[in-house]
Amino acid sequence: MTTFGNKLDPHYSARTAYGVKGNRQGIVVTNNPSTIDANQILTIRFPNLGENDVIIPGTARLALNVALNGDTDANHIIVNNLGRALVKKISVKLEGQEVMRLDDANIYLCHRDLWMTDKERLNAAYYGLHVDDGGNTAKIRLGAGDAVAATQPDASIAAAFGNRFAVPLDFEILTDHGPFYQAGLNDRLSFELTFNDYGRVIMSTDLTASY
């Protein structure tokens, strides 16, 4: 008969590590053309990954500087959650074959983001999602005439990001199924984004305002 001590668990087993360690690298790909307008399509091709490379969920995004044009309204401003509102159609392709298409993406994704937690919303300023500030942060970032520049934390957020915003590339293959492992598919991933109409992005009394 085997006797165990009072503090010894007979069901104890050595700790098993389930994590994977590796070298982390950020890759920036400059898009061509470097500017985009309403109703134009931008194709984003992911790097051709090696057999030991993966994309960590939640790390892929399109970053861009936003400039507003208009002559009669100095207070023109963008809608909330710009990263979603800016794109009206998303097509995801593997080696040129469409695997997902989302029309009216701005409506669906803005609605889905209403279920974000308070912490997620506070951390989404880079994507143009501003919380309980009446849009003042966006006004400061884009130089609107009625912005209250000394207000905190709006001023600090605006100083950190300026007029640079990001569109999240969070299709399920990149977020919900673990790290994206291209070598297992032998296909190269790409996104086609169709940018939205001016009136869906800009709030202005100037009907000719554009971005």
Key traits:
211 residues, alpha+beta, Adenovirus Type 2 Hexon, domain 4, four-stranded antiparallel beta sheet
Q: Fraction of residues in helices?
A: 10-25%
Shape: globular
CATH topology: Adenovirus Type 2 Hexon, domain 4
- Report the uncertain regions: none
- Please tell me how large the radius of gyration is: 22 Å
Distance between the termini: 80 Å
**Count of individual helical segments:** 6
CATH architecture: Distorted Sandwich
Strand content: 15-25%
User: What would CATH call the class?
Assistant: Mainly Beta
Give a count of the beta strands, DSSP E runs of length 2 or more: 8
Please state how the strands of the largest beta sheet are arranged side by side. 1-7-4-5
Q: Which structural class do the helices and strands define?
A: alpha+beta
What is the mean predicted local confidence, pLDDT? 88
Main beta sheet strand tally, sense and closure: 4 strands, antiparallel
Number of domains: 1
Order of helices and strands: EEEHEEHHHHEHEE
